[in-house]
Amino acid sequence: MWALIKPSKAMNNFSNNIKLLRKRKGRTQDDVAHALNMIRSTLSGYENEVAKPSVEVLTAFSDYFNVAIDTLIKVELSSLPESQLSQLERGYDVFFKGSKLRVLASTIGTDNEENIELVPEKAKAGYTSGFSDPEYIKVLPTFRLPFLSKEKKYRSFQISGDSMLPIPDGAYITGEYIQNWNNIKTGKPYIILTMDDGIVFKLVENRIHEEGILRLVSLNPLYAPYEIPANQVREVWSFVNFISGEMPKANQPKDELLVSIEELRKEVRAIQTKLEFN
Hints:
- By secondary structure, the protein is α+β, with helices and mostly antiparallel strands.
- Helix content is 36%, strand content 19%.
- It has three domains: 78 residues, 434 Repressor (Amino-terminal Domain); 128 residues, Umud Fragment, subunit A, CATH 2.10.109.10; 26 residues.
- Strands 2-1-3-4-9-5-6-7-8 form a nine-stranded mixed beta sheet.
- Helix 2 packs across helix 3.
- The protein is elongated, with a radius of gyration of 27 Å.
- The relative contact order is 0.09.
């Protein structure tokens, strides 16, 4: 495990991470030392890179903070945005599930709060390759929606086409970042980033556990559902809201059906009239 990362870097990560997690919990060194059955000076040594932790100590800190050992030594938690730290503290550590950690590139405003990045139609092609590049993400337009939670990560994407009518072509869809794909709920709308199809907005059937796939369904019945392997997916965003300058259209199919029925009735009456005269 230690061979995957330079020991000095691993120690630095571990020291900084346990200090960060302790402070975020509002705990003193005495509090944590007492909970882990060690003296405070020993804990201080770990936080200041003076003492090297044993496997037993790593396990104890992992259990206490509910964070995987791999995360404690491989990931600089201070570099993660607030939304990902909050998910980590709520138990959504993907190292516990044996999958690859997804570190999201994000931007922060001058007030140290996360922005909502906007991916317009003209930027969608570049996003497929630049989604994990902080340099690419920081040049995207940003904005804020004050009614959204500060503990979650959001991004907006401009959609194109009519596959999700009545949400119109050109609308901006805001989504919440989904770290743990097991939390994808069947029948709910999501923005999915795949390397082959780019950004798509669909209703999703979650079959990852059973078949390792997601089944994507359009609201417009003219478009057939299709399946994509989960290993081709790069990001998943849960639909939150949409913004559009276009007014929703009336329910034309229902109106047209009523007109067709009335015309059919007229034709039947005309046939009956002819039969009566014959």
